[in-house]
């Protein structure tokens, strides 16, 4: 059982930045982030494949960057130019199967391991 622990959430003014981290108890091939805003469905945000390739949802493309430090088994999400629409609980997810980044994002809600989430709030 892979344990995932997110950190780095908080409240930030519109236009600001935050960096989320997700510490994994062991290496997994595919990882990513999804979010859920109040009253809305879960939304895949970004994914990174085992070869380091990445894929993003259109809503965050150009503003968010996903990265991974394999030596530390830690996943990151750098979020820039945040807006009220980014307010949500952000979750880390991981899966042992090797897949392309675009497939990882499409399947992220069915990943084997999910974290507890970290809240990001951008007041309007």
Description:
This protein has 124 residues and is mainly beta. Helices cover 6% and strands 44% of the residues. Strands 2, 4, 5, 6, 9, 10 and 11 form a 7-stranded mixed sheet that branches. Strands 1-3-8-7 form a 4-stranded antiparallel sheet, with no helix packed on it.
Give the rounded overall mean pLDDT: 97
Net shape: globular
Percent range of helical residues: under 10%
> What is the total tally of β strands?
11
Classify the secondary structure makeup into a structural class.
mainly beta
Secondary-structure map:
Layout: E1 4-7, E2 10-11, E3 18-24, E4 30-36, E5 43-48, E6 54-56, E7 64-69, E8 74-79, E9 88-95, H1 101-107, E10 113-114, E11 118-121
Parallel strand pairs: 2-11
Antiparallel strand pairs: 1-3, 3-8, 4-5, 4-9, 5-6, 7-8, 9-10, 9-11
